[in-house]
Amino acid sequence: MVKSSKRRGISSIVGGLIFLILMTSAFSTFYIAFDFQQETINTQRDVSRDLVEKTQEQFVISAGADPNDNNRLGIQVKNQGPNPVEVANIWIVNKSDVNEPANRYEISYQDVFIPPGYGAPILENTPLYLNPAYGNDYTVKVISTLGSIKSTSVTVSGSTNLLAEMFTIPPDVVRGENVTVAMRITNIGKTPLVDVEPENIPLLISPSTSVFTSELISPSPVTLEPTESTIFTWHNTLSSLGTLGSKVTFTNSANGTDPSTGFNYVSNSAMDKITIRDDGSGGGSGTEIVLKDELFGRPEIFMIIPNVFGMSDDRGFWGVTVANPTNRTMSVN
């Protein structure tokens, strides 16, 4: 009887221990499963939050190389979203190379944060230069910490975004009479340029003693959209000191600013010449003056598109410039 009781007691103890082990295992499994589920929920919550933030992240970029500073690269980031943008890094792809090598660059911590509604340059403290010897066409990519990628193209060359052309009207002038100098400036870049104006308001004239007065009569500065042109015009009066048959050279250029990067561009130097002719070579003593062919040897046909002179935004303005090189009224057909 005693042995049976002892056996029953030992069995109860063993059963209790087994039950305790099973309960502990069950609770451990439940806790692990609950913890895993909680981690899964937190991960899904973080992914959803990042996805929402990435969806709300809206920014645009513009880039350019400053030809006046060894083609230093400038990148402007404009935050158009409700949250701050944090820039992780930038990539520069050389499209001129057949292998299109790409290089990754870290930027200064001072420039990585762009507040909502603001725009800022992100390479102020990280100077990078694009060498035309290694290529002219580059793709710049800006990557945020949320994984958003924005890209733009940058063209590097020895030229500028402004093209200058100069014309003198007429090509030969009598001493003491007037000559008109027109300089056409065209935005050949991909971005608008503001504050476009002549580099030298008084024209550069050689020899300077050949011209008595020179006055710019066109409004400046102006804004030029890509492919848009404008014309700056000067009225000049020749002095009596010029030598008959000699040449007078007019030279000038223009400059403008890219508002997205702040870079200033200077056009090529444009030049044209006139010939000082004899006072009596322009006509006879009658009431009608017959003009020589050489006076109209270069009638200038010009186009301004698109511009304020056009009939609409997508229609250009064509014209022909004809100068009257005499001191009498001329009828032109």
List the main descriptive attributes of the protein structure presented here.
Immunoglobulin-like, rod-shaped, 4-stranded antiparallel beta sheet, 17% helix, 5-stranded antiparallel beta sheet, 2 domains
Could you say what the CATH architecture of the largest domain is?
Sandwich
Let me know the average pLDDT: 79
Shape: rod-shaped
What is the total domain count? 2
Q: Please give the count of helices.
A: 1
What percent of residues are in strands? 35-45%
Largest sheet: 5 strands, antiparallel
SS elements, strand count: 22
> How would you spell out the order of helices and strands?
HEEEEEEEEEEEEEEEEEEEEEE
At the first level of CATH, what is the class of the largest domain?
A: Mainly Beta
Keywords: Membrane, Transmembrane, Transmembrane helix
Short synopsis of the structure:
By secondary structure, the protein is an alpha+beta fold.
Would you mind describing this structure in some detail?
This protein is α+β, with helices and mostly antiparallel strands and 333 residues long. The protein has 2 domains: 59-155, Sandwich (Immunoglobulin-like), CATH 2.60.40; 162-321, Immunoglobulin-like. The chain contains 1 helix and 22 strands. Strands 3, 4, 5, 7 and 8 form a 5-stranded antiparallel β-sheet that branches. The chain has a 4-stranded antiparallel β-sheet with strand order 9-11-16-14, with no helix packed on it. The termini are far apart.
